[in-house]
Specification:
Two copies of one chain form a homodimer.
Chain A (H helix, E strand, L loop, with lengths): L3 E2 L9 H6 L10 H17 L5 E5 L3 H12 L4 E5 L2 H12 L4 E5 L8 H8 L6 E5 L1 E2 L4 E2 L2 H8 L6 E5 L11 H4 L3 E5 L11 E5 L1 H7 L11 H8 L10 H17 L1 H21 L3 E2 L10 E5 L6 H10 L2 E2 L11 E5 L6 H17 L1
């Protein structure tokens, strides 16, 4: 039996999108594929507010995140860390043999522009990484303010993970001046996993030319070269790309701004419900994610038990990630989740609690 | 309109397998996913004649091929090259910053055991790569004989691309002593692209522990660690894994040996037809692929024209790859292609030629 997913990826996928996964195969070096690729990337440019390049990688986003540091760090990288995925990015950077330092904020707290400025003004770095929306904590760092700081450092590559925010919250790639912006499609896009979407600025592509040991599978210059023919370096996951095309039509039909507003409204509703049940919110005011909300288990509730009972009733609920498991819980309200789906979830949780 | 594919990947996919791509989503850290993962890898072990580890990578095979050299070359690599994909593997090895030499055979010719022995006895190498079935030329190198040579060099990692042979021709991973054996599923497996399947020996995993800069996305030790929980390091392409499960049931129902025999029979049929039309075969006797056949354009036929006319009639035909384009042509007879599909293709080609 399929369960209703309220976790931050994989998420519920609309039936029309699932059906698009079953389209018969085509050759990936064909004119038909190039036309599909171009249609999809043209629509992605609207969602990402960019006139630059948008690439499709057959991988999860972390492959591209690793690729970004392999392509763009020539001197030393600073990884801003405030949760499980940003911490991991620092670890992965070092595992690539790249010199890197971490600047930490407490889990749940945002990365602030002054932290970025302080690190970069040391002159030690030629690249920085930041996670816009920490999926482990429900914290959204102020990307616009950070982008203002980054304008002072045009030679430092600005590499941003928008894994769980892209297409659920506004990220204007060109206005913000992002060098890399990456997401997996199984989050706010509402697709099955297996595909990552990313942008690379022309400035970053130029820099990559002089970075050694970029490898092949995540070599940004290979993506750029193949993009000229509306194609990918390696055989792409054609089924997911068909599905992405269908989902982008649905997204554009809803309206991009309307979609962001729906996510913001669902975030507001979830925060209110969590507070009304006597829990606190994990992220501070002003830095709370629009695509998922993390509650602090301030009442020491039995979250494992709740998760189990919800599962029996057909709902998948998340009782926190990594070192904050059971100390927090996460409710994802992204992609095709609607406010009424949240009403439904909240009622079921309340009925479980009423039984106790 | 969907066209019938006679190219060496992507290939025709059975409707039941396409339908499995549309199964509703599940969380990838759930018990349901672990059960799916275990079912699929258990069945893969039968197809690969291994009791060792089988990993699933959300990527094309080339990602894993890059990963293999990043994980397993500590000193110097020798890449055996006899076609576009083996040549590319050498290029990719160097692009990773790894010291490597190429040993070349002419395109279309096999890699022979004596070539392997000659290179390895220099003592310069701790890893070798070879492409079992060169998809660009239809040449199958004698893996069993090469494996005999490799028994003399137990400390040299034996890394094999079986991209277009795995599940279409017998590759006994354990008996051959392969350290890495990798394939993409859009070839002889008969699935949509987006997933690679690979084995890594325990000896290779042990070696990887002391290889620096393995990165993360293709770090074999990450795959091994997650395999303990029947899972993957990053979010897997769940839809493809569902489809692989369905296709493995179909493969096991046909019978593995029966499947290999069907591929051999189709290869024989295709060779006979090519010769009967006055063309030569590109690969020499004894080294011809069982999953795709390459003909030499010895009659200087208009292959571009043939490709175009076949396309108009709903068939996708390949007029050679890379530097041997139009000098050769390739007919893939792998996965779910049946002998009668080839009869159909041959009749259509003959009718096109009859028109001229």
């Amino acid at each position: 039996m399929a369960k209703k997913l309220f976790i931050p990826g994989p998420v519920e996928v609309h039936q029309d999108v699932l059906n698009a996964m079953s389209v018969p195969m085509m050759g990936h070096r064909s004119a038909d594929y190039a036309a599909l690729h171009q249609r999809v990337t043209d629509k992605l440019k609207k969602v990402l507010y960019t006139e630059g390049r948008v690439f499709l990688s057959t991988s999860s986003a972390f492959g591209v995140m690793e690729g970004a540091v392999r392509n763009l760090v020539q001197k030393r990288c600073v990884n801003f860390c405030n949760g499980a995925f940003s911490d991991k990015w620092h670890d992965v950077t070092k595992r690539c043999g790249i010199e890197a330092d971490a600047v930490h904020a407490e889990w749940g707290k945002p990365i602030l522009p002054e932290m970025v400025d302080e690190a970069l003004k040391t002159g030690k770095y030629d690249a920085m990484t930041i996670v816009h929306n920490e999926t482990s904590t429900g914290t959204m760092s102020p990307l616009e303010e950070i982008a203002e700081v980054m304008k002072e450092y045009p030679d430092i590559s600005f590499i941003v993970d928008t894994v769980s925010s892209m297409s659920g919250a506004k990220v204007e790639v060109d206005i913000l001046g992002l060098d890399v912006c990456v997401a997996s499609v199984q989050k706010a896009f509402g697709l099955p996993p297996g595909l990552a979407v990313f942008t690379v600025s022309e400035k970053a592509l130029e820099k990559a030319k002089s970075t050694p040991n970029r490898g092949y599978y995540f070599d940004f210059l290979e993506f750029a070269k193949n993009d000229e023919k509306h194609n990918t370096p390696s055989t792409p996951c054609i089924s997911q790309i068909h599905a992405l095309g269908v989902q982008l039509d649905r997204i554009l039909k809803e309206g991009i701004e309307e979609r962001f507003a729906r996510h913001a409204k669902m975030a507001e509703k979830t925060r209110e419900w969590i507070l009304s049940k006597g829990f606190e919110l994990f992220a501070p005011e002003g830095y709370r994610s629009n695509t998922l909300t993390s509650g602090k288990n301030s009442k020491d509730a039995d979250l494992e038990g709740l998760k189990k009972k919800l599962s029996e009733r057909g709902y998948v609920f998340d009782n926190g990630y990594g070192k904050i498991k059971n100390k927090t819980f996460r409710i994802a309200h992204m992609a095709d989740i609607m406010p009424e789906d949240l009403d439904d979830l909240f009622k079921v949780i309340e009925s479980i609690w009423a039984e106790n």
